[in-house]
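Sample 3 of the quickstart, ligand adenosine monophosphate:
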Amino acid sequence: MLKIAIQKSGRLHDDTIALLKQCGLKVDKGLDQLKAEVRGFPAEVLFLRNSDIPQYVADGVADIAVLGENTVIEKGQNLTTHEHLGFSKCRLSIAVPKGNEDYDSIKSLEGKKIATSYPNTLRQYLEKKSVNAEIHQISGSVEIAPNIGLSDAICDLVSSGSTLFKNNLIEKDIILKSEAVLVSRSSLGNENEDLLNQLLFRIRSVLGARKFKYILMNVPNEKLDEVSAILPVLKSPTVLPLMEEGWSSLHSVIGSEDFWGVINQLKACGAQGILVCPIEKMVV
Ligand code: AMP
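Result:
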């Protein structure tokens, strides 16, 4: 039985449950439960505070976890990162109050106070840049620190930048980029290692499928080669005859980002009735 730690509530929670569900793991969660059984995979889920998760995995209370990469780095436990999951994207940045025109690099904060909830990551960054600044650790609402005279700058997570904007702060330096990751202890034992690999296989099939769309269209037979050359396919396109003489239905796979770039070329080749559909899972 694989014990999976996930965030109890907060930004990562819903996307994590949704990813597990797409991988065939249905989490039977009642209200305020710390633990839930999983249908569809030999696992149980532990609902924990995001910042406590690295310790629980390191101590063996949980085997694997989904959490923000920024937390893995901050807590510094010896965990193995197996997969970047593509959600909860953010960056840990230095921001200073608007009008602080004399900031040109992190060196401008020499001798100044920086408020953060990520003291270890910030300390390492300052050491790397040979900057001597005072780190003021606070656990939440870091963005208000300069306004109340607690610090000269902040080091905090940013995604859209709207919190900084509302608090008259300007982002100056990005210390690290982060997203949700799947981690484990360095050694799990054979049985759980095997379960982890099975889960990773499912996750990669789901994440891989998100990058592609299934595309089908009707093409005049004499244009099949030309259309095939436009579509970067997995192996080779599927071609099925239409009832109408001289036409075929061509099925293929296309990168989600690539469709608008090739649509005019496809139409110029005479392709008609072009359909683009999502792919749920992809095993190549
Ligand atoms: P929270 O739900 O506030 O405890 O945040 C959990 C995790 O969500 C953080 O550790 C980050 O990995 C991630 N996250 C993504 N965007 C943001 C953001 N704008 N502010 C804070 N955390 C974020």
